[in-house]
Amino acid sequence: MAMKPEKLVQHLSDAVRKEGFKVRVEEGNFRGGQCIFAEERLVILNRRMSQEERADMLAQVLATEDLDPVFLLPEVRAFVEKSVQAKQSAPEA
Question: Is position 92 within any domain?
Answer without folding.
Answer: no
